[in-house]
Specification:
- By secondary structure, this protein is mostly helical.
- The chain folds into two domains: 200 residues, no CATH class; 192 residues, no CATH class.
- It has a two-stranded antiparallel sheet.
- Strand 1 and strand 2 form a beta hairpin.
- Helix 16 runs antiparallel to helix 17.
- It is globular, with a radius of gyration of 24 Å.
Length: 423
Amino acid sequence: MKEFFQNKMVPTMAKISNLKYLIVLRDAFMMAFPATIFGSFSVVLMNLPFAPQGFTNLMSSIFGNGNNATMAIMSIFVCLGIGINLAKQDGYDDEAHFIGITSLVGFLLVTPTTRVLESGEVVDGIFNISNLGASGMFVGMIVAFISAELHCFVKRKGWKISMPEMVPETVAKSFSALIPMLFSLTIVTLMNYVITTVCGDDLHSLIFTWLQAPLLGIGGSFGALMVTQFLIQFLWFFGIHGHNVVNPMITPILQTLGLQNLEAYTAGLERTNIFTMQFQEIFTVSLGGSGMTLIVVLMMIFFMKSKTLKSLGKLAIGPGAFNVNEPVIFGLPIVLNSLAFIPWVFGTMISAAIAYFAMKLGIVPLTTGVAIPWTTPIFISGMMATNSIMGGVLQLVQALIVGVIWFPFLKMMDKKYLDNDDI
């Protein structure tokens, strides 16, 4: 069985993680990360749980537009990032910004510019900001990929306007991108016209109803949480970076669910999504890294007797406090260590399940959608992600549960190392 996983399943998962489109999606979301942090910072300052009302009002007047300029229009950044990173994957680094613009314009071309106000008045010439955020995420990704691929297709065919050598390079590149961009955007425009005419609805509504909503329902479920945690931990056990393999597949769904929570939070409405990108990062990774090993490191230092584990614990405590745990994964080791398999895989799953049901039962508030860096230490990250001290308390409870699951297995490892120390 071990040979099957090592020789068949693990290489297959590694190949999946290297698929071009998954890499492009991962890098596109990472391009948007700095902007989302600023937007999240703005939301946090405007909603500090124990701040005086005067301070909150001041922060709102200063940072009130921070969310609308970043998180609320996340689809714009992702579309731009898809075009740029797809161009780089195809070897068109010099024209990546043109292909990024093609993807962005393609998305805007299929986005309705008519809005019906609450009064019933129809207003033309404006984008509904909700279409540029969570609601438009999937249509944005699909159209961005199509637009960028069409642009690259024309580039590969060599259809371009070549300018004389004396023309400045910037001007020459603009003309070189003209035909690919015109071709791509024309196809997208015609495609949008045909689909909306035949189906009687705009592309945003169609994709949201028939694709995005069902995928979000499945991807945000408890079952999806369990499968995700199992795959991540299982792959790490064989030495493959589980997050690098799984995250590109789940990030679009979890980011969209998180943005929905953020939209509800900023509007003062009830949040409905438990398993979001913030949940994935704060209530799994931010407890000492993958596998929630901060408590394991502390047990090495204070409860184990072997010099090996004590030394490893002291070495790993610094990085572990900021959720970097490669010293544990490769030093304990976790990789291919039969004693570590059960606590490593199932301890994480049980702890994540407890966090899920703590939120489902209303004991802990749901994540607000605010992006918190995964390196933020335990307790602080939990409070910031939920805007409640209960988020931090939940992380501590999770850590204790992981510790209870790990303890007997760690003691067995400790005994082995003690025997070696005596030799």
